[in-house]
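Quick one, C-alpha coordinates below. Sequence please?
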Protein backbone atom coordinates (compact mmCIF):
# COMPACT_ATOMS: atom_id res chain seq x y z
CA UNK A 1 0.00 0.00 0.00
CA UNK A 2 1.15 3.55 -0.76
CA UNK A 3 2.56 5.37 2.28
CA UNK A 4 0.10 8.23 1.71
CA UNK A 5 -3.08 6.16 1.57
CA UNK A 6 -5.21 5.78 4.64
CA UNK A 7 -7.15 2.66 5.41
CA UNK A 8 -10.77 2.75 6.58
CA UNK A 9 -9.67 1.12 9.85
CA UNK A 10 -7.21 3.94 10.56
CA UNK A 11 -9.85 6.59 9.91
CA UNK A 12 -12.47 4.90 12.07
CA UNK A 13 -9.92 4.38 14.84
CA UNK A 14 -9.26 8.12 14.86
CA UNK A 15 -12.93 8.93 15.31
CA UNK A 16 -13.12 7.23 18.70
CA UNK A 17 -12.24 10.37 20.65
CA UNK A 18 -15.94 11.10 21.14
CA UNK A 19 -16.00 14.78 20.21
CA UNK A 20 -19.47 15.90 19.18
CA UNK A 21 -18.45 19.20 17.62
CA UNK A 22 -15.53 20.66 15.73
CA UNK A 23 -15.10 23.28 18.46
CA UNK A 24 -14.52 20.58 21.08
CA UNK A 25 -11.97 18.80 18.90
CA UNK A 26 -10.21 22.06 18.07
CA UNK A 27 -10.03 23.03 21.74
CA UNK A 28 -8.61 19.62 22.70
CA UNK A 29 -6.00 19.70 19.93
CA UNK A 30 -4.99 23.31 20.71
CA UNK A 31 -3.09 23.86 17.43
CA UNK A 32 -0.43 26.59 17.57
CA UNK A 33 0.23 27.43 13.92
CA UNK A 34 -2.10 28.33 11.05
CA UNK A 35 -1.16 25.19 9.17
CA UNK A 36 -1.89 23.08 12.27
CA UNK A 37 -5.30 24.80 12.56
CA UNK A 38 -6.03 23.83 8.97
CA UNK A 39 -4.83 20.27 9.61
CA UNK A 40 -7.17 19.92 12.60
CA UNK A 41 -10.13 21.24 10.57
CA UNK A 42 -9.24 18.91 7.69
CA UNK A 43 -9.04 16.05 10.18
CA UNK A 44 -12.59 16.85 11.31
CA UNK A 45 -13.80 16.76 7.69
CA UNK A 46 -12.03 13.50 6.87
CA UNK A 47 -12.42 11.56 10.12
CA UNK A 48 -15.48 12.86 11.97
CA UNK A 49 -17.55 13.75 8.89
CA UNK A 50 -16.27 10.82 6.82
CA UNK A 51 -15.19 12.76 3.74
CA UNK A 52 -12.73 10.67 1.71
CA UNK A 53 -11.41 13.91 0.21
CA UNK A 54 -12.26 17.56 0.71
CA UNK A 55 -11.86 21.04 -0.73
CA UNK A 56 -10.38 23.98 1.14
CA UNK A 57 -13.67 25.89 1.31
CA UNK A 58 -15.46 23.68 3.88
CA UNK A 59 -12.28 23.51 5.96
CA UNK A 60 -11.99 27.30 5.91
CA UNK A 61 -15.70 27.59 6.80
CA UNK A 62 -15.23 25.37 9.87
CA UNK A 63 -12.39 27.59 11.04
CA UNK A 64 -14.30 30.83 10.42
CA UNK A 65 -17.42 29.58 12.23
CA UNK A 66 -15.36 28.90 15.36
CA UNK A 67 -13.40 32.15 15.17
CA UNK A 68 -10.13 30.46 14.21
CA UNK A 69 -9.48 32.11 10.87
CA UNK A 70 -6.32 31.69 8.82
CA UNK A 71 -4.82 34.42 6.66
CA UNK A 72 -4.52 32.26 3.52
CA UNK A 73 -6.02 28.75 3.40
CA UNK A 74 -4.18 27.79 0.19
CA UNK A 75 -0.82 28.79 1.64
CA UNK A 76 -1.57 26.77 4.79
CA UNK A 77 -2.37 23.68 2.68
CA UNK A 78 0.81 24.25 0.64
CA UNK A 79 2.79 24.28 3.90
CA UNK A 80 1.24 20.95 4.94
CA UNK A 81 2.01 19.46 1.53
CA UNK A 82 5.61 20.73 1.54
CA UNK A 83 6.49 19.12 4.88
CA UNK A 84 8.43 15.89 4.96
CA UNK A 85 6.71 13.56 5.45
CA UNK A 86 3.70 15.16 3.82
CA UNK A 87 0.74 15.76 6.10
CA UNK A 88 -1.73 16.45 3.28
CA UNK A 89 -1.89 15.47 -0.39
CA UNK A 90 -3.46 17.42 -3.21
CA UNK A 91 -5.61 14.83 -4.99
CA UNK A 92 -7.19 16.90 -7.79
CA UNK A 93 -7.19 20.33 -9.33
CA UNK A 94 -10.17 21.53 -11.35
CA UNK A 95 -9.22 24.29 -13.75
CA UNK A 96 -5.99 25.84 -14.91
CA UNK A 97 -5.83 29.10 -13.00
CA UNK A 98 -4.07 29.64 -9.69
CA UNK A 99 -7.55 29.92 -8.12
CA UNK A 100 -8.62 26.51 -9.43
CA UNK A 101 -10.56 24.27 -7.05
CA UNK A 102 -8.21 21.82 -5.35
CA UNK A 103 -9.15 18.64 -3.56
CA UNK A 104 -7.10 17.33 -0.64
CA UNK A 105 -6.69 14.29 1.57
CA UNK A 106 -4.82 13.89 4.86
CA UNK A 107 -1.99 11.36 4.80
CA UNK A 108 -1.42 8.73 7.44
CA UNK A 109 1.27 10.95 8.95
CA UNK A 110 -1.15 13.89 9.03
CA UNK A 111 -3.67 11.77 10.91
CA UNK A 112 -0.96 10.77 13.38
CA UNK A 113 0.01 14.41 13.86
CA UNK A 114 -3.53 15.39 14.91
CA UNK A 115 -3.83 12.29 17.11
CA UNK A 116 -0.61 13.39 18.82
CA UNK A 117 -2.06 16.87 19.37
CA UNK A 118 -5.18 15.31 20.89
CA UNK A 119 -3.16 13.22 23.30
CA UNK A 120 -1.13 16.23 24.42
CA UNK A 121 2.24 15.56 22.81
CA UNK A 122 2.54 17.71 19.68
CA UNK A 123 5.48 16.74 17.48
CA UNK A 124 6.85 19.85 15.81
CA UNK A 125 8.72 19.52 12.54
Amino acid sequence: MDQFQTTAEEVSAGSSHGFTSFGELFDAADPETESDRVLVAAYWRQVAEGASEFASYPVNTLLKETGNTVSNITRAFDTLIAQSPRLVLQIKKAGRSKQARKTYKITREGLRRVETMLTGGVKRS
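The domain at 8-118 is CATH 1.10.10 (Arc Repressor Mutant, subunit A). Strands lie at 54-55, 88-94, 101-106.
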